[in-house]
Specification:
Strand content: over 45%
Shape: globular
Helix content: under 10%
Largest sheet: 4 strands, antiparallel
Distance between the termini: 13 Å
Strand order of the largest sheet: 4-5-6-7
Length: 265
């Protein structure tokens, strides 16, 4: 397991022997100890997102670094790192676009600004059972949309006219696809769900949840959808929420879910 931290690089934990180790600027060529995002590819290489710099890769022997000079402009403004079934590495940014790395070069998949349109923040991405990418996008000045890939550079887009719901923002790192290929999108106004035929919105009006802002999300080994839960305006933290179609569980609001002892969740 890998844990990125705010000031101490990354910690690694091996379950087979219970050994912890750390990688930081004191024992590696990392340019900074703030590790914002972590991913592991199919070759067991670490991909470490460093804000305002770019991405460091490590294969347990050698390091390589991607920045504005050797990848794409804006990589230091990354929001996520994802790995698809072809071992392409996907990186989304605020206003610089969505890119993927195919092992040789970085390829633009979605622009940070379409011609004549608003700038776009690529806030989240997950990959379904058919290797399609589902991307959450917020537009500067208001409005959100979801992109579904037809190819890695061709997408169809959904907006509020397709959902039938409106919300202030799509959350950062809030796209989750579960074991049944159902899609979940965290928003400031509830959890948007797409079962490949219809859209629905889970919120305070149709469920027992105490707040509507579904922030960072993931799916666990038991197919629970796990999100950090907050209210957007005024802001209040309600801890973690577990959703499994049959029930909803909310942890204590005292949980510090964004950063605990310098660990990023």
């Amino acid at each position: 397991m890998l844990f990125g931290t705010v000031t101490n690089g990354i910690y690694t934990y091996k379950k087979d022997n219970g050994v912890w180790d750390s990688i930081n600027t004191n024992n590696s060529p990392l340019p900074d100890n703030f590790i914002f995002r972590v991913a592991v590819d199919k070759l067991n290489r670490y991909w470490l997102g460093i804000p305002n710099y770019g991405i460091a890769t490590y294969d347990n022997v050698s390091w390589f670094f991607f920045n504005d000079q050797n990848s794409f402009h804006g990589i230091g403004d990354l929001n996520f790192i994802k790995v698809d079934s072809s071992n392409n590495i996907w990186v989304g940014t605020d206003f610089f676009g969505l890119y993927y790395y195919n092992g040789n070069s970085w390829i633009k998949s979605i622009s940070g600004q379409f011609s004549g349109g608003p700038r776009q923040a690529i806030t989240g991405l997950d990959i379904d059972s058919e290797n399609r990418k589902w991307v959450s996008i917020n537009m500067q000045g208001g409005g959100s949309k979801i992109a579904k890939s037809i190819t890695d550079t061709l997408f169809v887009y959904y907006d509020s006219t397709d959902f039938g719901f409106s919300f202030t923002l799509l959350s950062y790192d809030g796209v989750v696809i579960d074991q049944h290929n159902v899609k979940y999108f965290g928003t400031t106004n509830g959890l948007l769900i797409h079962n490949n035929s219809i859209w629905q919105l889970l919120n305070i009006f149709n469920s027992p949840i105490p707040a509507d802002w579904f922030n960072k999300g993931l799916v666990d080994s038991r197919n629970n959808k796990v999100y950090t839960l907050s209210s957007f305006e005024p802001y209040n933290n309600y801890g973690l929420i577990f959703y499994n179609q049959d029930s909803v569980i909310v942890t204590s609001g005292d949980c510090k879910i964004i950063c605990v002892n310098e660990f990023l969740s």
